[in-house]
Amino acid sequence: MSLRSYAIEVPQVARMELDSDGALVRRARDGDYGAFEKLFERHRLMAYRFAYQMTTRRDDAEDIVQEAFVRAYQNLDRYRDEAKFTTWLLRIVTNLCTDQARTSQRRMTLEQQEAAGALDWMTVGDVDDPVQNLEEDRRKIALKRALNALPIHHKTMIVLRDLEGRDYPDIAKIVGCTVGGAKLRVLRARRALRDRVAPLINEE
Amino acid sequence: MLAFGDLTESEAAQVRAMAEGDPEAAQALRTYESMRSDLRSMSGAVPADQLSKERLQDAILKRGLNPQPQPRRWLGWVMAPAAMTVIFALVLAFQMERQPTPVVYNDEPLPEASPLAREDTPTLKADPGQTVSIEKLALEDEPETISVEKPVVSTVKKSTPKKRPSNGTRVAKLDKPAVERAVEAPKPSFATIPTSMDAPKIVLIQNDKDMTTGALKAVETEAYSGVLVGS
User: Fold this and answer.
1) pLDDT for B128-138, tens place per residue?
2) How many CA atoms lie within 13 A of B197 on its CB side?
3) Which chain B positions have a beta carbon within 8 Å of A45's beta carbon?
4) Whole-angstrom Cα distance, residue B121 to residue A61?
5) Residues of A with Cβ-Cβ distance to B6 under 8 angstroms
6) Measured between alpha carbons, how far is A183 from B83 in angstroms, rounded to an integer?
7) What is the rounded average pLDDT for all residues in chain A?
8) Could you tell me how many CB contacts below 8 A there are between chain A and chain B?
9) How far is A17 from chain B (nearest CA, A)?
10) What is the ipTM of this complex?
11) DSSP states of A176-199
């Protein structure tokens, strides 16, 4: 590496450090609200996608994400710099989703969920092989129904691992357990999901 | 875990070998593999959100959190000691200005003082209230030079030759080899030897004390014949 290229790279590294999540959190903690807005813009889609997959309702997901960022702003002093901001934020979102699932009075019944997915079933699919597309859609619908019917602690593990693709150390920090405990919880969640969806898949 | 790719290559090979001979295990493996592919296809499908920075700021304000710059925490740890230091310095300076110097000028006319003789050794007369005795001293060594910017008290003993300073300081040059030294009995007082023969100034510390301050009275004079020099 030549000296010239090294001299060019140093400022870029410095800029990356200044713009990192940790640096933005420190600035927000010191009173720079613009830094917190940058964090919001950077991570709101990730948080919203996770919340939507947990709640399956857009309004609920938006409320949960907004509340999560408000709580994050309120508790910036508690954020530890060595942890990832996304992990900390998802922990807040997970707790809010759990609270919402346990106390919600407006949970849709399985019949209402099936009715809501009926139109999707009719429009989704490849026209060339309607039979095969019909089977895939039925399987997916069945899987979705089974996933939404899971207890919230099982659903959380499936969403974090199999839908969001989080690694086990991150999942452990989000749910507050060890890595081995996270693997065990994912295993149990998958087993519970398979028990619900297997009869529907095996019938085909 | 095999179907979802959570096992290592060796572990996956072992599990597959075990599942080949078991129909139920093979069925479960197929179910899990189907679940994995379907879940992957579900992960990207979410409707667009309506979240915004303005909506977030409204929510923060409604919560009573003020998104304004907060004072830096460490500033208190720096400002408090700095403020205390400044206050202490101001108080000290004020007190130093208020305290008068313990020098009182009496209204009595100054005793007649003979000007110091430049050519001769200065002869000093005693103050009417003081007993003095004068001893003549003589330098055995050659006169040395002194560079003095402020008054200094120097005493030279007859039996002790004055040593030349080894640190490079210069010693004042005396016109006459003899220097008289006055010794007061019973109590010596101190006087400043004029730095310049043109305008000698002497502060005489008297034995009397001032009634108000309790300090010894001092008299400033340009020349005085009865100066007592302490050793």
Assistant:
1) 544 444 444 44
2) 10
3) 49
4) 107
5) 183, 186
6) 57
7) 81
8) 96
9) 21
10) 0.71
11) TS-HHHHHHHHHHHHHHHHHHHHH
